[in-house]
């Protein structure tokens, strides 16, 4: 089987882990990585991540020009850089390259740009691309419909240095129609990667839906899942949440 060529934007803490996950999957070949700075310019991500082969040549954003994506073709592009990274791959979208945009927060101008890209190619955007968190959100929405009068609280836990409220927790509150200030509780201790819990309280029982990220590798596995889904899909805007919801519908047990 022909390997799927991947290009990655972003080579920070999460980007490196994501690159490592793609390098470990035999179905994929890492074609290149684009990072903001000139650090490790033209070195190979594979070597920097401990592999003994050359893959994922590193470029800086200064290397991106109109012909970049034609000279270095890929089958899918994965973005774990920052909100402004989206301005760099317009030509990739116009060339029909599927895009996985795993950025936690975009400004409205950038959301509009994503929508423009989706006219040319399949674009998946989810603030949290881990498979588990999207299963959690879909399951929570189903449970809310089953038990509409339940009290609902969201608890998010992250490492001590994380100052802002979890974007994923805010997203959960929004899809459940909850007031963030009243129903979202944040805890900052130690080195917790990420833990999200949705508590449904009823008079005689409590239901807890919990997702915990043990490693950033979960983001890489989510990106791999997303790429596999997008390949062959028509142009349009996709989310992990809608994909999981579709799979829920297809796999409801019949009694």
TrEMBL record:
Protein name per its UniProtKB record: 4-hydroxy-tetrahydrodipicolinate reductase
Catalytic activity: (S)-2,3,4,5-tetrahydrodipicolinate + NAD(+) + H2O = (2S,4S)-4-hydroxy-2,3,4,5-tetrahydrodipicolinate + NADH + H(+); (S)-2,3,4,5-tetrahydrodipicolinate + NADP(+) + H2O = (2S,4S)-4-hydroxy-2,3,4,5-tetrahydrodipicolinate + NADPH + H(+)
Domain Dihydrodipicolinate reductase N-terminal positions: 4-128
UniProt xrefs under Pfam families: DapB_C, DapB_N
UniProt keyword list: Amino-acid biosynthesis, Diaminopimelate biosynthesis, Lysine biosynthesis, NAD, NADP, Oxidoreductase
Occurrences of domain Dihydrodipicolinate reductase C-terminal (ranges): 132-243
Pathway in which this enzyme or protein is active: Amino-acid biosynthesis; L-lysine biosynthesis via DAP pathway; (S)-tetrahydrodipicolinate from L-aspartate: step 4/4
SUPFAM superfamilies hit by this protein: Glyceraldehyde-3-phosphate dehydrogenase-like, C-terminal domain, NAD(P)-binding Rossmann-fold domains
EC code(s) of this entry: 1.17.1.8
Signal sequence coordinates: none
């Amino acid at each position: 089987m022909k390997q799927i060529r991947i290009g990655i934007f972003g080579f920070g803490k999460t980007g490196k882990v994501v690159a490592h996950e793609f390098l470990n999957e035999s179905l994929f070949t890492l074609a290149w990585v684009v990072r903001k700075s000139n650090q490790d310019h033209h070195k190979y991500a594979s070597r920097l991540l401990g592999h003994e082969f050359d893959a994922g040549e590193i470029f800086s954003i200064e290397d991106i020009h109109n012909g970049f994506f034609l000279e270095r073709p890929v089958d899918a592009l994965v973005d774990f850089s920052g909100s402004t990274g989206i301005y760099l791959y317009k030509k990739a979208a116009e060339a029909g390259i599927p895009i996985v945009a795993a950025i936690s927060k975009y400004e409205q101008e950038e959301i509009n740009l994503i929508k423009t890209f989706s006219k040319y190619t399949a674009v998946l955007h989810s603030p949290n691309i881990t498979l588990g968190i999207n299963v959690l959100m879909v399951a929570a929405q189903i449970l809310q419909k089953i038990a509409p009068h339940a009290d609902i609280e969201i608890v998010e836990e992250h490492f001590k240095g994380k100052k802002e409220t979890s974007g994923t927790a805010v997203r959960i509150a929004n899809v459940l129609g909850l007031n963030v200030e009243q129903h979202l509780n944040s805890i900052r201790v130690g080195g917790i990667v990420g833990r999200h819990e949705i508590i449904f309280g009823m008079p005689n029982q409590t239901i807890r839906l919990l997702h915990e990220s043990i490693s950033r590798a979960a983001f890489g596995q989510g990106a791999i899942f997303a790429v596999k889904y997008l390949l062959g899909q028509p142009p349009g805007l996709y989310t992990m949440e809608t994909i999981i919801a579709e799979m829920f519908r297809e796999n409801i047990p019949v009694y």
